[in-house]
Amino acid sequence: MIHDVSVHQQYQLAKKDELKILIVGAGIAGLTAAQMLRKQGNNPVLIERNKSNKSSGYMLALMPMVDNAISELKVTETYLNKSVSINNFNFYSHQGSLLRKNSIHELMSKYGTYRGISRGRLIEVLTDDGCMLTYDTKVSDLHQKIIKYLFLLKDMKIYLILI
Ligand SMILES: Cc1cc2nc3c(=O)[nH]c(=O)nc-3n(C[C@H](O)[C@H](O)[C@H](O)COP(=O)(O)OP(=O)(O)OC[C@H]3O[C@@H](n4cnc5c(N)ncnc54)[C@H](O)[C@@H]3O)c2cc1C
C-alpha cells in the first residue's frame, strides 16, 4: 500500500543515511528500486510528478527475469495471487476464429514464471509491505557544486554527496 507523505517526512528518515538517495518517478522501476533499498535498510526519498497512481494501466506480460526482484522483495506469494499464468499464444483471424495456438509454458517454465498482471496490480504487489511516496512533486532545479549536487524540491533542499 502506498502512503502519500510529505517530502519532509521522507527526508527526516533519510537524514541519518550516509548516502542520501532521491528517486525521481514512482513507476515500476522507481518503486522497485525504492523498495529494494528500503529492504536493505536505506531511506531513499521517492517522488512522483502525478497526483496519484489510481489508474490500473495496461496489461504487462512479465518474463522469468523479474522473479529474482520479486523474491528479493519477499512478495512472491502476493505476485502469484495477483497475476495470472500465461500458457499460450493464440493467433486469430480478423474475423475472430482461432488459427493457431502455440504453447509458451513449456519453454518459459524452464526459467521461472511467465505471468500477466496489470500495471496497477503490479504496483500493489511492489508496495505490499507499505511504501512511502510523495505525489505531485518534481525536481525544480539542479545545481552542481564541487562535491555536491543540490536538489530543490519545492521548498526542501536535499544534498546528494558524490563519493
Ligand atoms: C502499452 C504498453 C504495454 C507494455 N507491455 C509490457 C509487457 O508486456 N511486459 C513488460 O515487461 N513491459 C511492458 N511494457 C513496458 C513497461 O510498462 C515499461 O518498461 C515500464 O513500465 C517502465 O517503467 P519505468 O518505471 O521505467 O517508467 P514509467 O512506468 O514510465 O514510470 C516513470 C514514472 O516517473 C514519473 N516521472 C517522470 N518524470 C518525472 C519527473 N521529472 N519528476 C517526477 N516524476 C517523474 C512518471 O510520472 C512515471 O510515473 C509496456 C508498456 C506499454 C506502454
Written account of the structure:
The chain contains six helices and twelve strands. With 163 residues, it is α+β, with helices and mostly antiparallel strands. It has a single domain (2-161), classed as FAD/NAD(P)-binding domain. A hairpin with a 2-residue loop joins strand 11 (148-153) and strand 12 (156-161). The two termini are 33 Å apart. It binds flavin-adenine dinucleotide (FAD). Flavin-adenine dinucleotide binds at residues 24-30, 47-50, 58, 60-62, 138.
Question: What labels would you give this structure?
Answer:
single chain, alpha+beta, FAD/NAD(P)-binding domain, three-stranded antiparallel sheet, 28% helix, 30% strand, binds flavin-adenine dinucleotide
Summarize the structure.
By secondary structure, the chain is α+β, with helices and mostly antiparallel strands. Helix content is 28%, strand content 30%. It has one domain (2-161): FAD/NAD(P)-binding domain (3-Layer(bba) Sandwich).
- The CATH superfamily turns out to be FAD/NAD(P)-binding domain
- Stated plainly, the CATH topology is called FAD/NAD(P)-binding domain
Give the SSE order as H and E letters.
EHEHEEHHEEEHEHEEEE
Alpha-carbon distance between the termini?
33 Å
How large, in whole angstroms, is the Cα Rg? 20 Å
- The CATH class turns out to be Alpha Beta
**What multimeric state do the chains show?**
single chain
Give a count of the beta strands, DSSP E runs of length 2 or more: 12
The major pleated sheet works out as: 3 strands, antiparallel
- The backbone outline, from C-alpha atoms, is elongated
Unreliable residue stretches: none
Mean pLDDT value:
88
Which distinct ligands sit in these coordinates? flavin-adenine dinucleotide
Count of distinct structural domains:
1
- Strand arrangement across the biggest beta sheet: 4-8-5
Q: Share of helix among residues?
A: 25-40%
Residue share in β-strands: 25-35%
